[in-house]
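DM from R.C. (forwarded with permission)

"hey, sorry to bug you on a friday — could you get me a structure for this? deadline for the figure draft is monday and I only need the backbone to look sensible"
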Amino acid sequence: MSIKVLLIEDEKNLADMIAFFLDEEGYITERVHHPREALHLFSQFQPDIVVTDLMLPEIDGNELVDSFRQHSTVPVLMISASTMLNDRLRALHNGADDFLCKPFSLKELDARIKALLRRSIITYQDKPVKENQPSEMTGHISVNEYRRTLFVDSVEIDVTHIEFEIMKELYRNPGKVFTRNELMDRIKGSERAYLDRTIDVHISSLRKKIEPDPKNPRFIKTVWGTGYKYMV
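My reply, with the result:
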């Protein structure tokens, strides 16, 4: 499966050049020129890594990273024409994982992306899986489709294939109400052979793993008479 890169760069020519290079290297690249577009696209595209400029219109790169960090641990590579040490330190302190000064070699950009992805995989593998979820969970949920992993508060949660597929669909569409049939169609397509109540069983199991209080769910809400929805 190809790695998905969200590129946020307001200099169109540079963005086009970087996107073309990344596409040629086999990445799936979505590029946006305005940070508000990035905020809208982030949850839909589910990138494996974000490459963002520091100096952006209206919302700078640090604010953007802060917004991403509220919901995701996705690796972030900050790029900037600034060579000031304070700018680099601020970006790293605010949640960026690496900082690359312009002008840079596209080969170096590729190497930095690969290094961040390797580092993130090692970090996730080193984190223990909680057998019993504590009641004090704050509940920052993130889903990484490339690695097929689910995290709560940056801790990997052990879920089944079906549970992951359900969570993936809900997470992609916050606020959208899914009927049981819609969820089964998304998961199994035309080959599905389950009764409606099976979805309820998987949802119940998933809630026990991700909800601070499964009896009073905060994230996966029941819409009575219809189905379920995911609330951020």
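R.C.: lifesaver. The CA atoms of residues 121 and 147 lie 8 Å apart.
me: no worries. The longest strand covers residues 4-8.
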